[in-house]
């Protein structure tokens, strides 16, 4: 009996040793990402269909990849949005992650300095068909004729709508759809009616501690007027009637108390879910979150709608847009590490539908055209964004720094800290000084 036990024990030791050896043989690569941390809810989830929201889905995707890959282990490194200060610091220290998430608007800042690996040949070998990329996605990751990233989504600016409050305000049609303004005059008329009927502001806005709301909304209003404010990618032009009109519109919304005030991103996200206003101007990434909220008891119960940013100027239905992507940082990688990096990117390509459940638009034509995607909630209501989502010209450098400057100045005018004219002049001057020194 003792002898048999010894043999069994020896076998178990050999088996455990073999398992450890197999695990050790897997190549580990670091992947830097934002999208939040949610290990408590999704840390062990490998069935991506059971995950919701940006954080849940990316966490489950990485878990699934690690569970299925025979050759690679992804080590996620979670950073605060947008993470570029940390990324730059790590590059300077000589210890960048292998892969990093990156907005398409930022890629040229890194690719132009030789900090990213071109991926055309790797994608061809891996079976990633770049011809299946949407036009927006392919343009977003292509710089100077080379592809520098795996596109992950196209995200853009929406109106998230509390239908229950819109009904209370008498702003729904016979089919129960929200009645949307088609001009600036209609916008103010509806906003006043909404406030009178509900006692709440028409808009919920993220006005504190970040600049994104101001820039994305202002750019959208310029696009709708066909204002070509970056006709020269090295110089912005805000000295136009269109720019003045758009900024005055935002200032009037604020001064007439038609929006919430002093809310940061987390507060405004929660405020809309709590029913504190009618329209939350924010992005595609919240569609899944609010659709789930509408299935529960609460302010959004059976009363959530979403639409592309309505066209309130007669020129164009275009809307601000950008995209998340994955880049391979230039560094001394082994053949195995590079192969593992491309394997992970191919996995994300193959699972792009799962990411599109967040509300972001897919980056593959075959998914956009599929019944599976079209049957997701609210996708028909935002289908136009696949065409009308508009990014700054790819030749414009320092786009996130531009967003910060533009947002600071637009915010100062919207809140009344500066005159509209002064804010536009200061924004133009500061941005053009930045671009004059951009490398």
Automatic annotation (TrEMBL):
Respond yes or no to whether keyword Signal is given for this record.
yes
Under the heading Pfam families, the entry gives: SBP_bac_8 (PF13416)
Keyword Signal (UniProt): yes
* Gene3D superfamilies the record matches: Periplasmic binding protein-like II
A molecular function (GO) held by this record is:
maltose binding
Q: From which residue to which does the signal peptide run?
A: 1-23
Top-rank lineage group of the source organism: Bacteria
Gene Ontology cellular-component annotations:
ATP-binding cassette (ABC) transporter complex, substrate-binding subunit-containing
Q: Which UniProt keywords apply?
A: Periplasm, Signal, Sugar transport, Transport
Which Gene Ontology BP annotations are present? Answer: maltodextrin transmembrane transport; maltose transport
Assigned protein family: Belongs to the bacterial solute-binding protein 1 family.
Q: Quote the protein name from its UniProt record.
A: ABC-type sugar transport system, periplasmic component
Tell me what organism the protein belongs to. Answer: uncultured Pleomorphomonas sp
């Amino acid at each position: 009996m003792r002898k048999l036990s010894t043999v069994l024990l020896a076998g178990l030791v050999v088996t455990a040793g073999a398992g450890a050896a197999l695990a050790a043989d897997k190549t580990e690569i670091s992947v830097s990402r934002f999208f939040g941390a949610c290990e408590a809810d999704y840390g062990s989830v490998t069935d991506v269909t059971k995950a919701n929201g940006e954080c849940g889905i990316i966490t489950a995707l990485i878990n699934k990849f690690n569970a299925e890959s025979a050759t690679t282990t992804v080590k996620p490194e979670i950073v605060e949005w947008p993470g570029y200060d940390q990324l730059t610091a790590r590059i300077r220290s000589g210890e960048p992650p292998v892969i990093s998430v990156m907005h398409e608007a930022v890629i040229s800042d890194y690719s132009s300095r030789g900090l990213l690996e071109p991926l055309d040949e790797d994608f061809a070998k891996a079976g990633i068909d770049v011809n299946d990329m949407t036009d927006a996605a392919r343009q977003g990751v292509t710089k100077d004729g080379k592809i520098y990233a795996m596109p992950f989504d196209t995200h853009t600016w929406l109106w998230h709508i509390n239908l229950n409050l819109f009904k209370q305000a008498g702003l729904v049609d016979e089919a129960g759809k929200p009645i949307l303004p088609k001009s600036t005059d209609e916008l103010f008329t509806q906003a006043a009616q909404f406030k009178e009927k509900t006692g709440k502001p028409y808009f919920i806005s993220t006005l504190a501690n970040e600049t994104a709301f101001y820039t994305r909304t202002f750019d959208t209003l310029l696009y709708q007027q066909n204002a070509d404010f970056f006709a020269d990618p090295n110089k912005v032009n805000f000295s136009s009637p269109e720019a003045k009109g758009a900024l005055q519109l935002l200032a009037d919304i604020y001064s007439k108390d038609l929006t919430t005030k002093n809310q940061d991103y987390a507060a405004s996200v929660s405020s809309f879910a709590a029913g504190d206003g009618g329209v939350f101007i924010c992005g595609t990434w919240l569609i899944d979150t609010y659709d789930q909220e509408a299935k529960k008891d609460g302010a959004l119960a059976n009363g959530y709608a979403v639409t592309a940013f309505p066209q309130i100027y007669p020129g164009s239905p275009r809307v601000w847009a950008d995209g998340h992507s994955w880049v391979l940082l230039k560094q001394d990688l082994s053949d195995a590490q590079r192969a593992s990096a491309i394997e992970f990117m191919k996995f994300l390509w193959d699972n792009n539908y799962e990411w599109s459940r967040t509300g972001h638009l897919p980056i593959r034509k075959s998914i956009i055209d599929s019944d599976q995607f079209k049957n997701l909630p609210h996708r028909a209501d935002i289908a136009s964004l696949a065409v009308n989502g508009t990014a700054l010209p790819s030749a414009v450098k320092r786009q996130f720094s531009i967003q910060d400057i533009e947002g600071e100045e637009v915010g100062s005018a919207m809140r009344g800290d500066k005159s509209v004219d002064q804010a536009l002049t200061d924004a133009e001057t500061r941005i053009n000084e930045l671009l004059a020194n951009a490398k």
